[in-house]
Amino acid sequence: MSDARTQILGGIRRSLRRGELAGDARSEIEARLASPPRGPSVARAQLPHPEKVALFCQWAETLNATVARVGADDVPGEVTAYLARNNLPANVAMAPSPLLEGYDWASQKMLSIRRGRGEGSDQVSVTGAFAGIAETGTVVMASGPDHPVSLNLLPDTHVVVLREADVVAGYEDVWGRLRERYGKNLMPRTVNTITGPSRTGDIEQAMELGAHGPRRMHILVVRD
After folding, report:
1. pTM for this prediction
2. Burial group, residue 50, by CB count within 10 angstroms (0-12, 13-18, 19+)
3. 219 in Cβ contact with 66 (< 8 Å)
4. Are residues 207 and 66 in contact, defined by beta-carbon separation less than 8 angstroms?
5. Is residue 192 a contact partner of residue 125, using CB atoms and an 8 Å limit?
6. What is the separation, in whole angstroms, between the first and last Cα of the chain?
7. Residue ranges matching CATH 3.40.50.10420 in the chain
């Protein structure tokens, strides 16, 4: 794998008419990877944490998601109520996440839960989120055994459970948290940043929801 990677990157460098990495150039790159520089931050999100959470909710709703701020005990009931309000079936595909298992799903007798990856027939998925970004109302998903990527993409409705403690100011904060949690060479295979439901304006310049993924996103922001 290392040899193949070296060959591919070497081919790219030759196409750019650059020489092989050596000496100072290699040292500079290794130093940057060891201590990545922090990029610019957006001023509007540099706020006390309660205001960051409020800003996240504001932007998420502006971008066509719906938001409910709930206590931990209310998470299962809000999921069931949201499905009922939108005439959706009380059947969900849920990420097999320890975070989600901490909620009392057994209290919802009419809710049917299948844990695992998303399938083409699923209409609703329920997942956690690695982080929420206040500056844009974006949720961040890190893939792994406890969060199959297909749950973010296949069902028509995506219900996201996000803890207030996981709301950060900007994107640079997310990369820092990822490095801290996973460490070097252990990063998740996929990091999805999702801002509202899927949409496109390519068709006659009219906004259409659900173009490449869920047409509905409901975010439960769970109080600490």
Report:
1. 0.84
2. exposed
3. yes
4. no
5. no
6. 43
7. 42-222
**Contact status, residue 58 vs residue 69, Cβ threshold 8 Å:** no
| Token representation of residue 175 | 């990369």
d(CA 113, CA 124): 10
Distance CA 135, CA 59 (A): 8
- For the chain, the DSSP string reads -HHHHHHHHHHHHHHTT-----HHHHHHHHHHHHSPPP----GGG-S-HHHHHHHHHHHHHHTT-EEEEE-GGGHHHHHHHHHHHTT--SEEEE---HHHHTS-GGG-TT-EEEESS--TT--EEEEE-SEEETTTTEEEEE-BTTB-THHHHSSSEEEEEEEGGGEESSHHHHHHHHHHHH-TT---S-EEEE-SS-EE-TTTT--EESSSS-SEEEEEEE--
Which token pair is 108? Answer: 């919802």
Do 92 and 114 touch, CB atoms closer than 8 A? yes
Whether 154 and 118 have beta carbons less than 8 Å apart is answered as: yes
User: Which fold does the domain 42-222 belong to in CATH?
Assistant: Rossmann fold (3.40.50)
Q: What tokens were used for 209?
A: 């929801």
The predicted-structure confidence for 127-170, as pLDDT tens digits, reads as follows 999 999 999 999 999 999 999 999 999 999 999 999 999 999 99
